[in-house]
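Notebook entry, structure prediction.
Reason for the run: the old model in the group folder had no record of what sequence produced it. Starting over properly, with the input documented here first.
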Amino acid sequence: MKTVFNVILGLCALALVYICYASIMGPINFEKAKKHRDAAVIARLMDIRKAQLEYRTLHNQQYTASFDSLIDFVKNQKLPFIFKQGELNDKQLEDGLTEKKAVNIINKAKKTGKYDEVKKWGLENFKRDTLWVAVLDTIFPRGFNADSMRYVPFGNGAQFEMAIKNDTAKSGAPFCLLEVKTPYEVYLNGLDQQEIANIKDVQTKLGKYCGLMIGSLETANNNAGNWE
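New structure, fully documented this time:
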């Protein structure tokens, strides 16, 4: 009986040690996994923001609420790139020459074949050409998969929630708001549910979104991320 009692006591001691270990390491392991997933989701949100900013430049300052449209833009559209050769010197600027005027003088000379004014202003080595470069070759690294932008990392196929809202500033100028987000439950799925509940409770009490997001439909914030 004494041996059995010692064995039971030993097992109880081991169980107690395991419980203490788990109570300490559980939150630590959760935080480590959360940081890893946070980083992947943030990187994806930043890619979306980057694509949306370029989309807006070619679409009358409007974002898109459609991932189909955004992905098609990234995969198939081109962005203007200004090739510059030569700079206006102080004397030219003092004489009232501007980049726009210089370009007009050169374009006129190309059409008429008369370069007297180009020589008069000393623009022989001044050049401004617009080149069109594929979005994928301009703002994203080689091998970037545009189709992946809509999906939340670790989300088991879930997509980001993306919406836009047109508003008007106090000055009367129209502007477009963008919001892209995903809740904790989506990308932290599979981790400790109590830890997720604890984080949500803290965020709720602070009046903050329970997840990761860029932009806001409530106020203009320059598409900042809520982690920034």
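Summary: Helices lie at 2-58, 67-76, 90-94, 99-112, 116-120, 135-138, 184-187, 193-205.
The old model has been moved to the deprecated folder.
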